[in-house]
Amino acid sequence: MFSDKKPDPPTVGRYPGLGMNLRYHNYHHEGEIYPTAIHYNSVGAESDMLLVREAAMMIVMNQLTDKPDWHVKVFDEAITEKWIQEALALPVDPLYDEIVQHMNPGFRSGAGSGPDRLKYILDRGCLEYCIKELRVKAKFFEKTGLVPALDANATVIKSDTFIDDTLHERLRNAFAKLKEEQKDNPDWHPRTNDMVQNLVHPSLYPLVYGRSRVFRDEVVGVEDAVDKWSGKGEVIPKKPADVPSGYDNRYHINWAVNGSDSHKLFWSDAFQWLPSNVKLMDDGSVKLTSYINNLHPKHSDIYETVEKLIERALPAWDHSVSFVRDWDIVSAGRTEARFPRPENPDDENEENWTPRIDDFTPHDAGEVEYEDVIRDADGELLYDTRKKNAWEEIREPVQPEAPEFKAWDYGVKPGMSLRERFKDLQVIVKMASIELTPDKPTFPAGGWHVEGQMNEHIVGTALYYLDSENVKPSYLQFRMQTDYYQEDWNIGQDAFGWMEQVYGTNLRGGDCLQRYGKIETKQGRLLAFPNVFHHRVSPVELDDKSKPGHRRFIALWLIDPRTRIINTGNVPPQQKNWWMESAFGGLNEGSAKNVPNAVAKLVSEGEPEHAALKAAAESGNPLPEELVNMVQTEADESTMPMSLEEAKEHRLKLMDERTSYQRDAEQSWSGIQYSFCEH
């Protein structure tokens, strides 16, 4: 697959950005890649173009699996007949609009300027196929508790039963405890109009090149993280990003797998989210071996709860996060479209249209002029251009019929689970609550994005929605990049009008993006999906606008198991208030006089609320002048752990950087366009 020359992969003591090039990605190990869709046209991160009909089938199946006891009812012929009739009665336009991104750049809109809307999408054959597939998925659900909800070339997993009541309640209690801790000073996420409260967020106190202190060895644990390690380590140097060109075997940079062809803003040489290290235990449990960034280790009960959630997320990742081995996708789920490619998609194929031109008679053909017809050498009529033009105005595409059903072999193959392949993983944790009030009743929709930047190497997401109160249903939408290289279609020059209609895209300059549908983010639901999906959140809105409401969730992000990155085992807690509590928590105003005032002044900067240190700064023991000069020379605010004020400044800079990156990424995704006019 790649060069046989394999530089050593990241290991303890050597990480991308610390002892290795920032852009290192372990592509070569056993020829495997965990793909991500940050960079367009990445290996393993592309979808087939899907027929509008197939995307609609996925959407309908997802809706049916939201019904209570669907996995039982799907085997009842009377019930499934009712489902078929309900699906046939679905309004076409809302379904079409969920699939076709006709308002995106590159898609022509307006009468006659782009593919016409389909007048219908689903037929009975499609829905009978769906019922057969749902029966296979029902058996899979009975076995695993998981539902492949949206799946073609990649899979979104959902489950409303996978997190049991005990763990659900423990998570709710964890959120309540952290919210109580923040009651006097909530951490509102910047630029959310005080509607998103961060309880644990990786953008606060991230790795900051040129500021954060690190160890090359992973020495920082959980219980000892603050007392033993806070404030220690060497400052990680800030260096300009090294951007090699083309393929560079030293760094495993290759354009096909997110390397040097990606925009420089896709990587950050300033910041990195910090994952925690997770050991996979022999008894099936997991153990955090380094602290969760921004979750104080004193919350041992919350740590245990997060460990339980990670343990439950592993099977969901097993069934959704795939990897590429020697150009083949290794997955527990579907990896190809249900419908085969049409054999003859050319517009000149009359079988693609109804009515056929031979069966079409214009109501008023009028007198046929000489220039409107084409005759052979004997004067026989070969072609009536006026009739053809009239036929092209009224013809409708014949959509491919549902293929013969073939059950997909869902399930993790022997030896392919994360537990079987790896002894430990890295996971980033986020805990947040969307808080709405009558004055702020709606949180706006988000933009299309994938998780993290390139140097965070995120390959999978697990989301658990643990609490929703007084909010309307909201959704997570999904799409994937498609391949712009479509040279193997058997069509003539500009003869792709039929394809545009049945695939719902503009093949002359349209975006290479394929929508998969949306999934409701309801309370008690676990979602898991690979980072090959672009996704966006729909608005969250109060149901009863006279009362407050909220939606609370926890996100887990899985780091590429093949590329270990700098983590909380390397970076001691950076929170100055944690360090001060550990170092001076027992200090009172009476004992403050024993603290040298020069030291007290230094460490109390940015923490004026610490009364004992304030007293020490004012009346503590003075130091000899030469020691005061030494303290002032060797130690200043930059040598201390970060104050909250400084951390928030870094967070804003990180957010600005990622805003620029997301803008460039979206331009990159939408800038890749179909060019069928060159056929």
Automatic annotation (TrEMBL):
Pfam families, per database record: DUF4246, DUF4246_N
Region named Disordered: 336-361
Domain DUF4246: start-end pairs: 15-86, 126-581
PANTHER family membership: FE2OG DIOXYGENASE DOMAIN-CONTAINING PROTEIN, IFI3P
Name assigned to this protein: Uncharacterized protein
Species: Fusarium oxysporum
Lineage of the species this protein comes from: Eukaryota, Fungi, Dikarya, Ascomycota, Pezizomycotina
